[in-house]
Amino acid sequence: MNDLELKAAARRNRNSWILTAPALLWLTVFFLIPYLIVVVYSFLTPDIYEVKFRLSLTSYLDVVSSAYLRSLFLAFKLAFQTTAICLLIGYPVAYFIARSSEKIKNTLLILIIIPFWTNLIIRIFSWRIFLSYNGVLNDTLMRIGLISSPLEIMRTDLAVILVMVYVYLPYMILPLYSVLEKIDFTLLQAAMDLGANEAKAYFKVTLPLSAEGIFAGSILVFIPALGAYLIPQLVGNQQSLYIGQIITYKIKNIPRNWPLASALSLVLLFLVALLLVLMFTAYKRRKDKLKGLVA
Amino acid sequence: MSDIRLENLSKDFGSFRAVENVNLEIKSGELFSFLGPSGCGKTTLLRMLAGFEIPNTGKIQIGNKDITQLPAYRRQVNTIFQNYSLFPHMSVFDNVAFPLKIRKQPASTIKSSVLEMLSLVKMEDQHAKYPDQLSGGQKQRVAIARALINKPEVLLLDEPLAALDLKLRQHMLIELMNIHDLVGITFIYVTHDQGEAMSISDRVAVMNQGKIIQSGPPDDIYERPSSIFSAYFIGETNLISGTVSQVHDDYIELKCQIDKDEFLELDSTMHFTPLPGKELTMSLRPEKIAISRSKPRTQDDINFVRGTIEDILYLGTHTQYIVRVGKLRIRVFSQHKRVYFDEKALDWEEPVWLFWHDSDTWLIDEVASDTSPSGSDLEIASPYSRAVKKLGNQRI
Questions:
Q1: Which of A104, B96, B275, B325 is deepest in the core (most CB within 10 A)?
Q2: CA–CA separation, B369 vs B373, rounded Å?
Q3: Is the ipTM of this structure higher than 0.85?
Q4: Coil, strand or helix: which one is B339?
Q5: Which residues of B touch A200 (CB under 8 A)?
Q6: A200, B83: Cβ pair inside 8 Å?
Q7: CB-CB under 8 Å, B128 with A290
């Protein structure tokens, strides 16, 4: 690089700082500082109404007690099941959309986005009506004689999964669609030409080439599903201890325990971050391998 | 033997008839080309051979086996796709190994055959690379290795050189011929490039609008076109319409109108016997015509006509003259061999003699219609600036 180019690069660097400053400021004030407060609070001593400004590790010791661990486990289990079901439903849908003609494609994509125009709470409430003991679902099933007494779906973990799948499905379909749409489908013909039947061609060519979309979609579904508060609150089992509920409870209800709530939030955050790091590392390794950086 | 036989093969897409009643036999081990403009049905024909399209009517046989309805993965036919279609997520080695892995061959066999195949296409030292890291020519070689590793009976090549630059294209063409000689299987080659088809093929089928217009060895098609389309599509030609005036034992006299009441009398040897008064078209290849300032010594079997040079395009290997004869414009290629014509260079608007052998007045039993190209509408002969025309005609 000559002097001029160096200067230009330096200027670009300076300019990029100016351009990112508003976002950085925003994130610092409304994200980083609050999180630091949470970190500080997690190391304080709980009190009935407030906190005592005395350092302690009791909240973290509490977190690893079996009750809260079970809650964490439940959160992961529900998020995992939601992601798996979203993938099973979303993949064929995304594939179908990606292979449709341009006109049908746009219509279907709009249909997927339309639910976002309605407020989340309203959509969850309509699920409550749909799933409830005397609701539309039970009514219909009984009328056509599939069941003789109403199913108890409302206020179960199943209801939570159902509604989460409904809410997060678009986050699975859209990234999958964008990846599937880019796949050159003559590659499938090439695979079949070389002796692979439809199934083999799919598993050897389409699936590996869509891995990026599966990865992106799964992250976009898993993470919000893990921290979901509203959905378990509105349709979940009242005996189940969903992690979001516990945290709210410890902040709101007396006796309060803000340090414990803070610690739980941070543990959850830490686990998600850990998961992400692991997944990105695996993903990056695969990508590097594709680029031939690793033989 | 695994000769390929196509019987009454037709394929419709909606109301569009892509391939119409094709009957053809391709010998085992032959290098056969389908040549035609885009949309002529050659690719559809290839896709039916590969198993990607099922014909509406007709039959495809390889040897004694009817493969018309067989899915692509059950056919002993492999394809080189136009854009190579290498799997981007697999290394060169894995791409070539793919057909063997699908057939669950043992790893040791896979390794040795893949390396053998890669050395055939001179890519053995690139086996760890990924398609993104390869040049167009290298991708092409990998695609060839991948298509041949299964030892198919037939290799289909769909415009395989279209994406390469000129030098590489010429090089790969020779390489393809060498590979064909080495493996000895049937190659079916689809192209719109007549140069490729002519130089590579044992036989060529010229296609237009879903039909095979003519098939035969390249020289046969070039020297003895059976229709206006094949005369015009392959190489350059002058098409002149005329009427048979007299039929002799071994030659035909023809008359063609070149102006309101001006006629040319031409002779032609005959390859079919038309009746006097029949209208037909003559194809006159530009390189078969000699051009000279002085009148040639009269010979029995030579045609000569008088004309005026309207345009001269210097093209390096040869010069193209556009000579006005009445309302006709006749294109003449003249190579720069001074041993024959020690004349000073011809100039614009100079009167000249054109002469050619009777047997080079090739008769086509077809009347040039308004839609078919005719000798008088050489669009290049319109009076634009000469420099522009020279540039525009570099490809000729």
A1: B96
A2: 8
A3: no
A4: coil
A5: 102
A6: no
A7: no
Return the HEC string of chain A: CCHHHHHHHHHHHHHHHHHHHHHHHHHHHHHHHHHHHHHHHHCCEECCCCEECCCCCHHHHHHCCHHHHHHHHHHHHHHHHHHHHHHHHHHHHHHHHHHCCHHHHHHHHHHHHHHHHCCHHHHHHHHHHHHCCCCHHHHHHHHCCCCCCCCCCCCCHHHHHHHHHHHHHHHHHHHHHHHHHHCCCHHHHHHHHCCCCHHHHHHHHHHHHHHHHHHHHHHHHHHHHHCCCHHHHHHCCCCCCCHHHHHHHHHHCCCCCHHHHHHHHHHHHHHHHHHHHHHHHHHHHHHHHHCCCCC
Span A179-228, pLDDT tens digits: 999 999 899 999 999 999 999 999 999 999 999 899 999 999 999 999 88
- Domains identified in chain B and CATH numbers: 4-228 (3.40.50.300), 236-392 (2.40.50.100)
Q: Which residue of A has its CA nearest to B51?
A: A193
Question: What is the span of the domain harbouring residue A176?
Answer: 57-290
Q: Which helix (H) or strand (E) holds B50?
A: helix B42-50
Paired tokens of A179: 């990846």
| A219 and A174 housed in the same domain | yes
For chain A, the domain total comes to 2
In 3D space, the residue among B359, B260, B267, B353 whose CA is nearest the CA of residue B306 turns out to be B353
Contact B360, B269 (CB under 8 A): no
Residues A35 and A62 in one domain: no
Reported as a single tens digit per residue, the pLDDT across B217-274 is 999 999 999 998 999 888 889 988 899 999 998 889 999 888 888 888 889 988 888 8
